[in-house]
Design a protein that fits this description.
With 157 residues, the chain is of the alpha+beta class. The protein is built from 3 helices and 7 strands; from the N terminus they run E-E-H-E-E-E-E-H-H-E. It is globular and about 50 Å long. The relative contact order is 0.18.
Length: 157
């Protein structure tokens, strides 16, 4: 029998919380925190993530996209930067920080078959896929871009 889920795994809900937009590299990014309701992303980690990204070159990114800052457990965080490129593709860069780390760092991803998003991050990603499709069907002018920026998900995943 194929088993993708450990027999001792207990699944719980998390919350996707929209945060103020992030502007860097000439681009604009929506921002989502993902965490349990009991242990939200601390403001200090959110500030550290924003500061890190403002100093990090993401291959000349100057576009529209979104960021997911995911609290995984007590002290580990994924920082996932997603850019819309090639009209309808999500391009992704992943960073992480753990207790004792000086700051965020590249998340090593060797191998051809790699993890992308977990079930909780997919709540924000699924919303963004639909929001981007609505934007692509729009006039794609300044008003449409602002409507897209304002269109964020909030809730349980």
């Amino acid at each position: 029998m194929l088993q993708s889920v450990s027999t001792d795994y207990v699944h719980g809900s998390k919350t996707v919380t929209p945060r103020p937009r992030f502007e860097a590299y000439g681009g604009q990014f929506k921002w989502y925190d993902v965490s349990t309701a009991e242990k939200p992303v601390p403001e200090a980690i959110g500030s550290k993530a924003r500061d890190f990204l403002s100093r990090t070159d993401l291959d000349g990114a100057s576009e529209l996209g979104f960021v997911v800052l995911h609290r995984c457990g007590a002290d580990f965080y994924f920082l996932i930067v997603c850019s819309w490129r090639g009209n309808n593709e999500i391009w992704e860069t992943v960073f992480a920080i753990d207790k004792g780390d000086d700051g965020f760092h590249d998340w090593p991803r060797p191998g051809p078959h790699l993890p992308t998003f977990c079930v909780w991050e997919m709540g924000a990603v699924a919303h963004e896929s639909l929001a981007w499709s609505r934007y692509l069907h729009s006039a794609r002018d300044d008003a449409a871009r602002e409507a897209w920026m304002a269109d964020q998900y909030e809730g349980l995943v």
